[in-house]
Write a structure and sequence with these properties.
Order of helices and strands: EHEHEEHHHHHHHEEEHH
Shape: globular
Strand content: 5-15%
Largest sheet: 4 strands, mixed
Number of helices: 11
Bound molecules: glutathione
Distance between the termini: 34 Å
Structural class: alpha+beta
């Protein structure tokens, strides 16, 4: 028995990203159940997770349903203290909890004007005054956290914590909508874009379903401001260097080409998520670099 986690479309579901980061970034195993937003898929799936209505929803190994992102973080932190979801230092832990709680409850102007969309990047979105006020507030609490915890690395309260996971979708919004923030905040945004778990989520989000019209905007676009993926592409040529999928060990049925070399996978999704960002996948990089 393990944890189950219901998620929505990876490209768009900011709360799902947070919920998934609590597992992937802290090495807690989980079985995913993905449903497409704005269709019957999510309510249909959630019938198995009564009384949940939204993604993410977790089910514990013994069967308790835990909707609400902040409850998922707290429950996992209590059950897996060694995973480090919260800082071990009491002061840093209290501050991390404050940040997570304010994120969970607030920043509605930013969230509604700039819905998370990991598939595009805009040059400008004409942020109105209430969005700029949210950005100011974010920078106040991020600077406060660093000051109070003495954190001078990439993250707000020392090591990467659940508080940082709560802000991952905000960081992507600042990046993809090219929102105005100061240098320290932008360094924090860039740390998120480079985080291995975030890169894996985005790589999957680029390929796991069609675009959702609800998130389409007419702003001018620019290239993705995060790390540039290695130039892989899908190929039908199955003469690959490996015969077993690096993820499952099953026989190769799909292939990609990178640097004139071919590598195989056991299904289209695992091939395509690897094409989207090869460096995000340690098991692939192990065979690529061998
Ligand atoms: N307060 C909830 C918010 C979750 C949420 O709104 N999730 C969205 C996806 S990002 C959702 O499930 N939307 C579908 C719906 O509201 O029907 C939490 O913290 O988990």
């Amino acid at each position: 028995m393990t944890y189950d986690l219901v998620i929505g479309d990876r490209a768009y579901s900011s709360w799902s990203l947070r919920g998934w980061l609590f597992f992937d970034a802290f090495n807690v195993p989980v079985k995913l159940h993905r449903a497409r937003l704005y269709t019957d898929e999510l309510p249909t799936l959630l019938k198995q997770f009564h009384p949940a209505r939204t993604a993410p929803t977790m089910r514990t190994p013994e069967g308790t349903v835990v909707p609400e992102t902040i409850a998922i973080a707290e429950e996992l932190a209590t059950r897996h203290p060694e995973a480090g979801l919260w800082p071990s230092d009491p002061k840093a832990r209290a501050i991390a909890r404050v940040l997570a709680a304010e994120m969970h409850a607030g920043f509605t102007a930013l969230r509604s004007h700039c819905p998370m969309n990991l598939r595009v990047s805009y040059t400008d979105c004409s942020p109105p005054a209430d969005v700029l006020a949210d950005l100011d507030r974010l920078q106040v609490i991020w600077a406060w956290a660093r000051d109070q915890t003495g954190s001078n690395g990439p993250w707000l309260c020392g090591n990467y914590s659940a508080a940082d996971a709560f802000f991952a979708p905000v960081a992507t919004r600042i990046a993809t909508y090219n929102l105005p923030v100061g240098g320290e905040a932008m360094a924090y945004v860039n740390a998120h874009l480079s985080h291995p778990s975030f890169r894996r989520w985005r790589a999957m989000g680029l390929v796991d379903g069609a675009d959702q019209d609800f998130y389409r905007r007419d702003y001018p676009t620019r290239p993705w401001p995060g790390p540039k993926p290695l130039p892989a592409r899908a190929t039908d040529d199955l003469t690959t260097e490996n015969t077993a999928c690096p993820y499952s060990g099953k026989p190769v049925t799909h292939a990609l080409e990178l640097d004139g070399r071919r590598f195989g996978f056991c299904n289209a999704f695992c091939r395509d998520k690897t094409v989207a960002d090869p460096e995000a996948w340690p098991a692939f990089m192990a065979i690529y670099q061998s």
